[in-house]
Every structure is written in structure tokens, then in C-alpha cells.
Amino acid sequence: MKQVNDYFGCLVFNDKVMKSKLSTDVYKKLKKTINDGKELDISVANAVALAMKDWAIENGATHYTHWFQPMTGVTAEKHDSFISPDGDGIIMEFKGKELIKGEPDASSFPSGGLRATCEARGYTAWDPTSYAFIKDKCLCIPTAFCSYDGQALDKKTPLLRSMQALNKQAMRVLKLFGQDQVTSVKTTVGPEQEYFLVDKDMYEKRKDLIFTGRTLFGAKSPKGQELEDHYFGSIKPRVQEFMNDLNEELWKLGILAKTEHNEVAPAQHELAPIFATTNIAADHNQITMEMMQKIAKKHNLVCLLHEKPFKGVNGSGKHNNWSISTNTGVNLLEPGDTPSENAQFLLFLVSVIKAVDEYQDLLRISVASASNDFRLGANEAPPAIISIFLGSDLQDVIESIETGKALKSNGKTFLKIGADVLPPLPKDTTDRNRTSPFAFTGNKFEFRALGSQESISCANIMLNTAVAEELKQFADRLEKAKDFNIELHELIKETIINHKRIIFNGNGYDDNWVKEAQKRGLLNLKSTPEALPYYLKDKNVKLFTSHSIYSVEEIHARYEIAQEHYSKVVNIEALTCLDMLNKDYLPAISKYTKSLAETVALKNSLNVTSDYEKAILDKVSLDLVVAYNKKVELENALKKASTISDVEKLSMYYKTDILTLMEDVRSVIDEIETNVDGMAWPVPSYAELLYSVK
Ligand code: ADP
Ligand code: MG
Fold first, then answer.
1. How far does residue 533's CA lie from ligand 2's centre (Å)?
2. Which of 23, 33, 322, 511 is the most buried (most CB within 10 A)?
């Protein structure tokens, strides 16, 4: 039996490997780059590249690639082999300059107009804080991807910038608390990943799943999730085999896959890793999603990462557990044991509260996509309204600070920040409020609105940057304070008073919350086209530019890409919908009515009653006409879409007109499905898709 200990991280060029393969001098210099972001000089890069290549070849690699995350949302790689001619043979080569910089042709990646077409070149630059790894015989080097004049064309660059911004401001705050031993601060993330598994043979019969990742049609199965018997239920053998294989591959890649279980919907599952530094967590989550899909195929399964593959049962999300940690291992969102630690905790806590309130729109945008629109606010996922859940214990603390009334709890009195110790706050282990989009869970926040297939980068860029901005404002004020403790108390109290509207501890699925949130002036951006324009608000542009996360051009580029992406996704869905109607559904239904008609005629000729066949024939024939008319309407609406050039108007048109027509035609086809002989139906049903994996 192989033991996990023996192979964990065996495909990663990690610290242990670096130590053993590099000279002490080179190792130290590389560590300096990793820890302090110091630039790597070429002689060190050459030594690292040589060691990396030898290690990779020993472990079966023949190629290397700069592995990056363009704005498509998936990862990109272009493999180069190590071979280089040498007389009649070859030698295996890999140089420092190839390690630190690559030049993929950038012209076919979305750039939102950042890259003039005449300047197709982009470059990739090694992110030495994320370890290189071997995947499919290829040494993958995690890299950032930029245009030649330094504009970010990817999701990693701004994420790293946002971590730097937060580091800078958090360090200023920590200095004020006398934390001189701390030299850097990083955010940490543990993303819980939900997914569906379906049988590959069935999947291949569904063009909608193949082209769009979700079912565009499908009548409800007689059994859905109403018995709540799937959540945490025992895992079926075929699924367990998949999970075992997946864990093994992830562990080899040094990914801390920890928890696996069945989720709420039939055929739905979840994997949660142990948290890591944010950029590493983002890389690992991308690899995890890729591995899930690859390994599923080996089991004749398909892993669906779409946010809403099936109507009528829960969709999939990703919970982004987020905190801030010092290099000395202190979690800054963990209440401490001393009055001073508690004061520091409360300051970081209110910085998050203020950030979430002031930048609700950006957090909403960070989880906005055509696919995630089907979940948010659909009583299965947090509402589209962003709010914070603190839990009753922390709520009491906040209220006591706000009102100046002493809080007595667990034998402790809490009144004065910086003088009293907080009563112990229980860690949330039971997911007490699943309806909140942004919940404090004892020593971290859980941002629950993320979609399952999205990169976690965007959400964390927004979060890190917004919190950096609040910490900056706090540091500016506290650095000037005459009496630190008095000013600190005032600052925390003021922040609570000014931003408590964002705190909501009740049921986020309740309709009353929508009214209440409106009264509080909170945003309720129900769909992607409604949310995206907020990207360009002055306050947001100022936030990003002042912390050097995005230039004005980069913001506009990202905005355009997101708008266009939304329209393209819905367009593909609409075309798939028409294709299935024209090639599968309408002909199959017509054929079925023909057989019914023949039966009716035959029975009538024999003087046998044909009431059943006649009734179904009538109903299905009528519905078929409705479906056909809707199909024609959809075709015409799509023609109109091609005449709209404004990105904002176009995405809105896809949402209001195209998606509505698709839903209309779906409801007719689904109604027909419930009345038609299963053998005559052209595609696998929901029941088959959701229940066939044993
Ligand atoms: P539970 O909510 O069941 O108590 P945990 O809190 O242990 O579970 O973890 C849920 C997820 O949150 C896991 O992915 C875990 O690694 C992550 N997590 C725990 N602590 C932190 C932290 N300080 N920063 C970021 N993520 C964290
Ligand atoms: Mg979960």
C-alpha cells in the first residue's frame, strides 16, 4: 500500500526539493525573491532552471510551459520540449531566461482592446511564490501574463498586486500596535468546490451539456432533492473511486485536498482543501478543477462545474474562506487573549465591514456571470444583495461598542477597546447561517456567492483591495493620533455606526430582507448586465488606480471583456437551444405524433376506442405548434441581437429578450416531455442524468 506521506508533493518543485537541489547560496537568494519579492538575477535564475530541469526529467517530464491564467477564466499552456540539437543527438536544455520570462503570442487571448493588434506579443513572468509542478510530463511554471507595455492580461497579476496593497497597509496598522516582529502579511483562502458527476455516455447525448455546460431543456425528475437524503449521504462506489483517484493526483501536486462529501442535489459533491496563501490557493483551485474533469473521464464520468447544470435542483458554488495572516503565523481575524490583541482584531474586523459596505458593487461584480445569475437570489444560494453575517456573539460585542453599554458574557465584562478582553467567541462549525453571502465564521470570513467554475482570483482581488483601502484610511488617521487608544476606540465605534447597515444576521432567503435591504440603501444587482456598469464608477476606478491594482485602461478592458463574455455565453446557449429544437426535439416530437396518428387511424378503422392516443395526440400537437412558434421568435430575436453593437445594450438584450424566449420554449418542450413515450425522447432525461451513477 502506497502511503500518502511517501508521495505527497512528489510532483512539486517545493522548498524541500529546492533545498536539496540548489547550492546554499542560490537557495538563499531564491528564498529572498519568494519572501520579499526581490528580483532574481540571471545567474541565480540559470542555476534554478538547471536544477528544475534535472528534477523534472528525473520525474518523467519532457516539456516545460509557462502556465498562466488569461482572462478566459481557464488556464493556458504552450508546451516546449527541453530538447536541443547536439551533434547527431540532442541534449536537454532549460535556461534561466526561459524560466523567468516567456513570450507567448497574445493575440488570441481576450485583451479588451489593451493590446493593439499590431502588437500581438505578450510576455509571461514567473511567480516564484507559487511552486512549479509537473502535469502530464510537462514542467508547469506558474506565471503572470502581461502585454509588452506591462498591462495585465491575466488574473494572477492583479491578484498579486492586491496582495501587495493589503500587505503594505496592514503592515502600517500592525506597526501602530507595536508588532515589530512581523515583516509581511498575506491573505489566505480555502475555497470549497462544488461539482456534479454524470455518466459520460449520457452526457455525450446532450448537446446542451457539451456546448454550454448546462441543460437547456429537461422535465423535472420525479425525485429531486426534496428528501434531503443526498447531503452527506454515503458515497456511491463509482464516485468514491473517482474521489480516491482525484485525491491521489491532487496530493502528488501538493494540493491539500481535505474534505469530500455529497452535496444537496442528487449527483452533486464537494471538495474542500486546507487553506493556503491566496495566489497559491487560486492556482491550486484551477488545477483542482482541471483534475476533476480529467479524472472523471477515466471513470467514464463527466464532471460538471457549471453553476446551474440542472433546473429545479441546487446549483454549484464555491465558498471562499478568507483571512489575513502574518508571516509569524498570527491570524489577524482571530480574536486574541489580551486586550491589545482584541483591539487589533476589532480594527481588522471593522475594516472588512467597511470594505464590504463601501464596495458591495465590486464584490457583486466579482461573482457575476451568465451562469452564476441562475443561482444568486434563487433560494439555494446567497441573495444578490451583499451583506455580512456576524453571529449573535460578535453582534453583541459590536452593539456594546456602539452604545457604550458594558457587555457581560461568559463571566467576562467587555466595555473598553484596548482595556478589556473579549468574551470567547465560538467558532462556527455548523454553518449556522447558510443564507448569508458573507459570513464571519469565528476566525475568517466566508464569501459564499462565488460560482463553481469561476476563478477565485476576481473575488479576492476585490476583497484584498477594498480592505487595503480601509486599512490605509485607518492607518492615516491613527498615525496622527495624540492618544492611540482613544482614537482607536473612536475609529472602531464610528466605523460600526457608519457601516452597520451591511450587517444582517437574519434569513437572506426571506422576501422581507429584500425590502429591508432596500430601506437600508443596499444594492440589489440581480443580474450580470445590471451589475457590470458599476465597475466604472468613479469611486471604484479611484480605488483600483490609487492602489496600483489596475490602470484606467485595464479597468475598461476588464469591463468590456466581462460584458462581451456574458453576451457570447448566452448567444452560444441560444444557438444550442435552436440546434436541439431543429435537429432533435421538433423532429422527434413530430415523429411521435405521427405514430400516435397512425395508431388512432388504425384503431378507428377497427372500431376500437382511441381516446388515450387521441388525447395525447391533440395535446402534444398543440404544444408542438407553440414550441415551433417560439423557436421562430427566438431565431428572429437572435438576428436582432447581431445588429446591436453597444456592449452594455447587447448584454441587457440577451438577458431580457433572449434568455426569456429560451425559457419560454423550454417550458413547452419540458411539458411535452412529460407526455411523450420515454423511448421516443431524443436525449437522456433528468432522471437518467441525475440517478444513473451507482
Ligand atoms: P468548518 O467551517 O467546518 O469549521 P473550517 O473552518 O475548518 O471548517 O474550514 C472550512 C474551510 O475554511 C477550509 O477550506 C479551511 O481550510 C478554510 N480555512 C480555515 N481557516 C482559514 C483561514 N485562516 N484562512 C482561510 N481559510 C481558512
Ligand atoms: Mg459547502
1. 30
2. 322
